[in-house]
Amino acid sequence: AVYPSTSCFEFLDRFPDETACFRHMLEIRFGPAIACPRCGTGQRLSATSRQRQLYCWRCSLVVSVTAGTLAGHSRIGLWNWFYLMLLVANRTTGMPIDAVARQLGISRLAAYRMLCLIRMHIDKLQQADRGLVGGPGIVVEIDETWLPGVIPDDPLASSGAIVFGIYSQGG
Q1: For the whole prediction, is pTM greater than 0.70?
Q2: What's the pLDDT tens digit per position in 2-49?
Q3: What secondary structure does DSSP assign to 86-155, as a single string?
Q4: CB under 8 Å to 85, separation ≥6 — which residues?
């Protein structure tokens, strides 16, 4: 799927500060009502003194908004994570670690960690989109053969071709 890219100006309009990023995460994870996931009584969650956490006064549940996300165990601000995802998404050639460190004003180690997490997440999304062959309990047949006498496009290559096939019985 191809998505239109977001310009830096559009990003700054939508996410001018850390609070806008936090509100966006709240809306994505809990919906516009921001109700407690445990009691489900419609009791609105309240912000705690700790950053990125919400508290339910009825059942005493403390919820971390960033738990289970790329920024879950990070001290780096949400705005930096959002901005780095914009940079990575808008560049087709990838982002060097030094460029990320300069852009965000962070150490090379922090930039390396952030890029690794984003790349792993992108890889998981791409694997889900690909529809990989096989899986637990699925029989996959793989075969290859050499076809001599096939004229290659490259005059330096030997005359012949390798044919490789994969068939999944379960889909």
Answers
A1: no
A2: 556 788 899 899 999 988 888 888 888 877 777 777 877 655 666 655
A3: HHHHH-SS---HHHHHHHHT--HHHHHHHHHHHHHHHHHHHHHHHT-S--TT--EEEEEEEEETPPPSST
A4: 70, 118
